[in-house]
Amino acid sequence: MTTRKRLAWIAVDWGSSNLRVWAMSDADEVLAHRGTERGMLGLSSTQYEATLLDVLGDWLPENDPLDVIVCGMAGARQGWREAPYLVVPARLDTLAEGAVVPSVQDPRLQVRLLPGLCQHRDETGKEFDVMRGEETQLAGLVAREPEFSGRVCLPGTHAKWARLVVGELLGFQTFMSGELFRLLAQQSVLSHSLSEDDLADSACREAFVTAVQDVSTEPTRFTQRLFAIRAGDLLDERLPGGEARGACLAARLSGLVIGLELAGALGGLDESEQVCLIGAEALCHRYALALEALGYTSRVIDNERAVLAGLALARSTVKHE
Amino acid sequence: MTTRKRLAWIAVDWGSSNLRVWAMSDADEVLAHRGTERGMLGLSSTQYEATLLDVLGDWLPENDPLDVIVCGMAGARQGWREAPYLVVPARLDTLAEGAVVPSVQDPRLQVRLLPGLCQHRDETGKEFDVMRGEETQLAGLVAREPEFSGRVCLPGTHAKWARLVVGELLGFQTFMSGELFRLLAQQSVLSHSLSEDDLADSACREAFVTAVQDVSTEPTRFTQRLFAIRAGDLLDERLPGGEARGACLAARLSGLVIGLELAGALGGLDESEQVCLIGAEALCHRYALALEALGYTSRVIDNERAVLAGLALARSTVKHE
């Protein structure tokens, strides 16, 4: 840390595969940032403290205890210590009330593990669902815009769609889109036909948009249209050759998977309601394009900004306890 | 071969992963049967003859040439020799007209590789599609029932649905259901929650049927309901414990995947029209149960009987050339 501003607390996003830490000032400015691949899946519960000290020990003051606010899978049952799920509907500005304190040896670490959220099946069509980590990004949205109401999408391996009303999460849905795309692109018969797509290319973009619209019109043909990607590679003479061919087909696969998600997630949403996307820039751009193809507008909030605002909001609640 | 009946020809189903051969009498009775895992994926084009001699060389007479009728991936571009696709609509009783003769050293082998079928995209909603092997099973149905008209389903890794009118295949659709189920069950986050299902168990059967109906009613929620299987494993207190839990969840996954296929494949089909299933007994039973859950009746033709009848029909055409 080369800045003169003083370290006041530490923000931590501890996911399944990655650990990201930020040194924060008392005004919630980022003083320094580090990331590693030491996520929950590679750790036993006794390894978390040592991992944390390993990654950020040199940031810590000599004696003073420091708030370390953690969201994500570190609070799962198979993580550091379980922070039990809060049940929706749930207010997002009081997540810290469900935080748990794991036992630590180093007195400088005042760790709080934030809880995830869960949802039970009910007669209104809600399904069993869980999130860990995304609730903190949603809290970040609420921290920045306390009056926000509307539909929020967090694209990713397990994409989340949340319905917020003035700081309260009423319900949410998880779609396995990212994982499904990866399995199909890398491990199915389609893998022989695909390369990396590029939505800046007009042919790719058109293939993507057409796929979104196709699956939205006829969702029941989803798995048939998957196989047609392979058959099209064998038969479609209008496809470009070379590298561009695999890129177009990958864009079509992406459009089919994201389009099916959107068709399910947008149910009941008026086209005049803007969707708020929270996530990595390129992925959010992809979703924005898909939404546009179906007549919806969107705006994007960067996921790092969202998670830091959510952790800062949680820390402010912890302090006032 | 312990029978006194004389070997007249050899039937071969040469798929991607398996090779199955039958010694046939002139009346098309099975005299002997063998199977190996030496499928197309493990062979280069120069290895087919040796493989065939290895598997059935001891069946061959000293000098007489013998018809060897082959369906499946041996006729693919990456197989023994390419038997180019016939384009639908196509008559199923004249497949042999598209057969090709690969070059062989052994004069006793009179090999014919039957063609697959392909379909081009058109304005009626037909998609690019291909089949290799299933067309011979369909020909087997036509051989047994020349007047057959209706919808035929061949479940499997890439399930085929065909529309037949009096011996002619008008169009078909391939659904990636089997492959999708396997990927999700074995490689996705769901793998932690699943074990083998058993539709003879009433709880499994109910989970399967409910899933078929759920996805048929709301197909756009497909990828969301996939994730809900995992969330249900964490949260649903009504699920049985132990081994039965994973079996019920596997049955639900199977129901979601097959149900989405049926919702797409049954479009425009009146409930009074019976679906003809051709395939392995257990899988056909699963499809029959799913069809019943949606109000349709079905009947089953064993896939070995179908493929042998199709190969016999092709051989009879070859002989009359």
From TrEMBL, chains A, B:
Domain of life: Bacteria
One family name in Pfam for this protein: DGOK
Protein name, per record: 2-keto-3-deoxy-galactonokinase
Organism encoding this protein: Litchfieldella qijiaojingensis
